[in-house]
Each structure stands twice: as structure tokens, then as C-alpha cells.
Design a protein that fits this description.
With 183 residues, this protein is mainly beta. The protein has one helix and eleven strands; from the N terminus they run αβββββββββββ. A hairpin with a 2-residue loop joins strand 4 and strand 5. The protein is globular and about 50 Å long.
């Protein structure tokens, strides 16, 4: 039963239908790439502390476009927002590869859940894009829909690992750095 639970956690968010709250016809929210990593093995010494998560948002437009994968907080309708996060076992300081992360984007009175994909697990990675394998990174992308109002939007990211530990990431409260939809 533990393997079944682990597989469902790992597969969640991979090539799924539209995310809860996502407009019909909009591309499914997911990290870059289509490969689903194998279920991670239990790591020695885990869990030994709190689950800790943090990250940033970036321009998640296609590779080769200006500004791709750079930190950004202003987006136009039709652009892709990339959520990049990491999850750490607070006791060991090591990546908690069993974590399942979801970004929750709130705009226009609704919330869209954006599943995130773990980039580790020995998957091939483009060496022209990464200095090393991104084993500590989870990614999820959300395309700003045409009905998104101009102005500030909010998001949080939640994580749960195989041990039942939970964590929530909330970005800094500084207004100038908040995600904002612009003309």
C-alpha cells in the first residue's frame, strides 16, 4: 500500500487534465518536460526535522525566448509563470525527494492549483541550461489567462512528504515584489 501511495503522489500533476479552477481549453499546468521520474527511494535518516520549502517565480516562456528562466514578478496575459521550489528535510539539510508540491494561484476570486514536478531522480537534463542536475528543484508552470484582471495576484505553495509532514511557502509581503498582471 505504501508503494501505491508513493506512485500516486509522484504521478500527480503529470500530463493531467486542466487544474482545478483552470479555464477550459487552457494548457494543463505542469513543469517543463513530459518525463515522469521514478518513485524516489526512502532516504536514510529521513524524517529527522521539519519539512522546509522555499523558491521563486520566473519567466517560464519557451526555451530560447528573451528572459526565459529569469526571476520576474510582472507578467502579461498569455505569458507563463514558472514556480521553482525546493523541499528540504530540516534535520538533515538534504533534499526531501518524496515531497509533493502544489502552487495555489489566486486571482479574480478563484484559486487555481498548479501541480509541481520534481526535477531530480537521475533524469537527463539540458546541460546548456543547467550548471548541474537540478535534483533539488520542483517546477510548475501557469499561463496567465485572458480573463486575469490587471493588478496584483497572490500565490502560496504547499508541500506534503511521504512521512505526512506539511509545509507552506508564502512569498515576502513587500508589495513591489508581488506577482502582478500588467498590460
Amino acid at each position: 500500500m505504501a508503494v501505491t501511495t508513493l506512485v500516486s503522489v509522484t504521478v500527480a500533476g503529470q500530463a493531467q487534465p486542466a487544474a482545478r479552477g483552470q479555464a477550459a481549453g487552457q494548457k494543463p499546468a505542469q513543469g517543463r518536460g513530459d518525463a515522469t521520474p521514478p518513485p524516489p527511494a526512502a532516504q536514510p535518516g529521513h524524517p529527522s526535522g521539519r519539512l522546509v520549502i522555499w523558491g521563486d517565480v520566473v519567466n517560464f516562456n519557451p526555451q530560447g525566448t528573451p528572459g526565459e528562466c529569469t526571476a520576474q514578478s510582472r507578467f502579461r496575459r498569455g505569458e507563463r509563470i514558472g514556480f521553482r521550489m525546493t523541499a528540504i528535510d530540516g534535520g538533515t539539510g538534504e533534499v526531501e525527494s518524496t515531497a509533493n508540491l502544489v502552487a495555489h494561484v489566486t486571482y479574480a476570486g478563484k484559486t487555481v492549483d498548479v501541480p509541481m514536478r520534481w526535477r531530480g531522480g537521475g533524469q537527463p537534463y539540458p546541460q546548456k541550461v543547467y550548471l548541474r542536475a537540478p535534483n533539488e528543484m520542483w517546477t510548475g508552470g501557469w499561463e496567465v489567462p485572458a480573463d486575469a484582471p490587471i493588478g496584483m495576484i497572490s500565490y502560496t505553495v504547499t508541500a506534503t512528504d511521504r512521512f505526512g509532514r506539511k509545509a507552506t511557502y508564502t512569498p515576502f509581503a513587500a508589495i513591489p515584489s508581488q506577482l502582478t498582471i500588467v498590460e
